[in-house]
């Protein structure tokens, strides 16, 4: 009796792991498609990128808004978790900051169109914006403090200030194919360097 009970528990745990992995795969695929094609990209493109049927996407995310919100939260979490990991793995805090800002730019590109999707639900948008600030501003502050502490960048910079600047540089990226937000953000980050 115990053996079959453990087998059932193990099977259920394995199914939950598979469901979490499938959801993660869907979110990663949707984020990648949103970066290249925007939040209005066809669901079939996301399904193809994830290697699943469209029914699988709708089972996890019944509406486009559900999917977009889930991708938004997923990317906020990934961006927040990347900061400390980059500080550990990069040669310098400044290098970690640069790589983190690249991830943040990807996130901002994906986020474009979110406001239009959530317009009828201002409370939902406000909740997501608060989540964004709570998770990402401390990470950006940590990266800036580490780089300033090593004398790589000017001191006294605040995460929210830098994130707003990066966000403002990304605004025009969707309306003009000649506009290279990533290049301008790179110049901004280069301008943080401490004069030698």
Can you give me a brief rundown of this structure?
It contains 9 helices and no strands.
Most strands sheet: none
Give the proportion of residues in helices. over 70%
- Name the CATH homologous superfamily of the largest domain: Tetracycline Repressor, domain 2
Report the sheet-strand fraction.
Answer: under 5%
The structural domain count equals 2
The value of Rg in angstroms is: 20 Å
CATH class of the largest domain: Mainly Alpha
Domain HTH tetR-type: 20-79
Pfam families: TetR_C_43, TetR_N
Organism: Streptomyces olivochromogenes
Keywords: DNA-binding, Transcription, Transcription regulation
Task: Give a verbal description of the structure.
With 196 residues, this protein is mainly α. The chain has two domains: 1-62, Arc Repressor Mutant, subunit A (Orthogonal Bundle), CATH 1.10.10; 64-196, Tetracycline Repressor, domain 2 (Orthogonal Bundle). The chain contains nine helices and no strands. The protein has helices at residues 2-37, 43-50, 54-60, 64-89, 93-111, 114-118, 122-149, 159-170, 181-190. α4 (64-89) packs antiparallel against α5 (93-111) and α7 (122-149) crosses α8. The chain is globular and about 55 Å long. The model has no long low-confidence stretch (mean pLDDT 85).
Show the helix and strand layout.
Elements: H1 2-37, H2 43-50, H3 54-60, H4 64-89, H5 93-111, H6 114-118, H7 122-149, H8 159-170, H9 181-190
